[in-house]
Specification:
The complex is a heterodimer of chains A (264) and B (324). Chain A is an all-alpha fold and 264 residues long. Chain A has eleven helices and no strands. Chain A is globular, with a radius of gyration of 19 Å. Chain B contains ten helices and 14 strands. The chains are: A mainly alpha (264), B alpha/beta (324).
């Protein structure tokens, strides 16, 4: 099999999402408008509350992380969402592609857009709120961002699995899952503030560990040892499990006829 | 009960593009009360390579279900199907590279232009570089959508969308092409052009085409063989001529005449007779056998016969007979 033919299959999804982003006001809003609104409003709130610079960093790490995850996970979810809206689902599954092409192709576009959002928000927050995103150094920052992107991939795959199970009814998951993580993973506050059962849930989510690991560079003592390692290990385990579930969901949609129904 | 007209079993398996036996499909849905719909009930088909095979039937007959199983989009509950020698369940990915589907109600991403849609699906079929550009250009021209190449999908007319769907289905030079109601809802002139393109595809490339339609004339014009599907079962299968011969709907004799129309009710072999404005239409069991007797009875009754025509039954009549 030609590597160029294989590369074309991955690139198909990157190119498709790039065009859709360029043409759709909705998608431009997702990439630019909401992350900026979010950052400015929270940044101004930190000024009003007269937070110390390290506390400002604590909150802004959370805000920027959530924006990156939101943008990147949507791209992965678009693997099915766009075709769900366009009723063109069956055509991509009629082509000789596997789930790797579909999900990795969309994830790559998510990473590109996520890097764009990160650059925009990092530069803006440095100027407006004196926040230094490079304090940890390039290596730890790159590892942190990769962790976020992999997290986003996992959430996006969950959305896709839900779509394959529930069709249009699962659309709401594309936006609500990330908000739920915001609540649990310690975006604005340490997870020690959470009640016991919810904290237990936070410890099951890799984002909690990635945030812990990165905030350590801003003077916050991590709650867990080897946070970064735990974050990656959990992410890898979830991704493997989710890919198996995705394939199961796709086979199920082929068996129940949902794949066809979503194309009508 | 199926009418075994074409002797598919006489064809060597290597000559068959599609072979299926005992295909069953049940759809379940609804909440809180579960609904159960049997879409296919033991369907068997054998389609030779290079043939145009029509699947006819009313809405809900199971046509799209059968096509979707053969196209690997749907898994059968029981039975098996092989397309180009590949199992549609176990060897689906290898098969997908060699087949394609165009449907009359196809839909693509709204913001992509016609050209971008072809490039997107071209990439999915592993086309790259200049080869893909040449292929897309050729298909834009072949399907007469070149002037609209930069028009977003949601601004294309129904006819153009259908032609784009056909162009997309030709991206991988499929050996088997599935067409699901390719001319539904089209103006007659555009429908004629699409039919011409379908016919030329077989002529030029020898593609095996499976055509789902409920337009009997379309099937009669294009297909070498058709299968009538109703409630998930194949009621009859064969060429249009064979079906007309086998499923006797009666021969129709049209007589233009002057003078009184005598009663024909008691005449042997006359199944039905209607007269209006100097035209008598008779359905008889066999036109060759009954024509002389019919004309004799008319003359005896005082009618002057001006013109006589024996009309061939069309597929629509066969279908109505089967659906009864």
């Amino acid at each position: 099999m030609s590597w160029r033919a294989e590369a074309a299959r991955y690139w198909a999804f990157v190119a498709k999402n790039a065009i859709m982003t360029r043409r759709s006001v909705f998608m431009l809003f997702e990439v630019l408008f909401w992350p900026c609104v979010w950052l400015v409003s929270v940044g101004l709130l930190t000024r009003f509350l007269e937070l110390r610079q390290e506390m400002v960093a604590y909150v802004l790490v959370g805000v920027i992380s959530m924006s990156i995850i939101q943008v990147c996970h949507l791209d992965v979810a678009f693997a099915l969402l766009l075709d769900l809206w366009a009723k063109s689902m069956k055509h991509q599954f009629l082509a000789p592609i596997h789930q790797g092409h579909l999900l990795l192709g969309h994830w790559l576009m998510g990473v590109l857009r996520g890097i764009g959002v990160f650059a925009l928000l990092a530069v803006f927050s440095a100027h407006a709120f004196g926040f230094d995103f490079l304090r940890a150094g390039v290596g730890p920052l790159a590892l942190f961002l990769l962790g976020l992107f992999l997290n986003a991939a996992a959430i996006g795959v969950v959305v896709c699995i839900l779509i394959l199970q529930y069709g249009h009814r699962a659309e709401v998951a594309a936006w609500s899952l990330v908000s739920l993580m915001m609540l649990v993973c310690g975006i604005y506050y340490p997870v020690t503030l959470l009640p016991g059962a919810v904290r237990w849930l936070a410890e099951l989510l890799p984002l909690t560990y990635f945030l812990e690991a990165f905030r350590a560079y801003y003077g916050f003592q991590p709650l867990y040892a080897h946070s970064l390692l735990k974050g990656y290990a959990l992410t890898a385990a979830y991704l493997v499990g989710l890919l198996v579930l995705f394939q199961w969901g796709l086979n199920r949609a082929r068996r129940t006829g949902l794949l066809l129904k979503l194309s009508e | 009960m199926p009418v075994p007209i074409s002797e598919a079993s006489a064809i060597s398996p290597t000559m068959l593009a599609i072979e299926a036996q005992g295909l069953h499909k049940v759809f379940r849905g609804g909440w809180p009360t579960r609904r159960r719909k049997e879409a296919l009930r033991g369907v068997a088909v054998a389609i030779p390579r290079g043939a145009i095979f029509g699947i006819l039937g009313p809405n809900g007959a199971g046509k799209t279900t059968l096509l979707s199983i053969l196209a690997t989009l749907l898994l059968p509950d029981a039975g098996w199907a092989r397309v180009l020698g590949l199992d549609v369940v176990r060897q689906a990915r290898a098969l997908r590279a060699r087949v394609n589907l165009a449907s009359g109600n196809a839909s693509f991403l709204w913001a992509l232009t016609a050209e971008e849609i072809l490039h997107f699906y071209g990439r999915l079929y592993g086309l790259y570089g200049r080869g893909r550009h040449r292929k897309v250009q050729a298909l834009l021209e072949r399907c007469e959508i070149e002037p609209y190449r930069r028009v977003p999908y949601n601004e294309l007319s129904t006819g153009l969308k259908q032609r784009l769907s056909l162009a997309k289905a030709l991206l991988n030079d499929p050996e088997v092409l599935y067409l699901d109601e390719p001319t539904v809802g089209l103006d007659p002139d555009i429908a004629v052009r699409i039919r011409e393109q379908i016919a030329s595809l077989r002529r030029e490339r020898g593609i095996t085409i499976v055509l789902c339609t409920h337009y009997m004339r379309e099937a009669e014009q294009l297909c070498d063989e058709v299968a009538f599907l109703r409630e998930g079962r194949i009621l009859a299968r064969g060429s249009a001529a064979e079906l007309k011969r086998e499923i006797r709907t009666g021969d129709r004799i049209r007589v233009r005449l002057e003078g009184p129309v005598p009663a024909l009710a008691g005449l042997p072999g006359v199944l039905e007779a209607t007269a209006a404005e100097g035209v008598l239409e008779c359905v008889v069991d066999d036109a060759v056998k009954r024509l002389d007797d019919l004309l004799g009875a008319l003359r005896e009754g005082g009618a002057v016969v001006r013109d006589v025509r024996v009309l061939e039954p069309d597929l629509e009549e066969v279908f109505l007979e089967l659906a009864r």
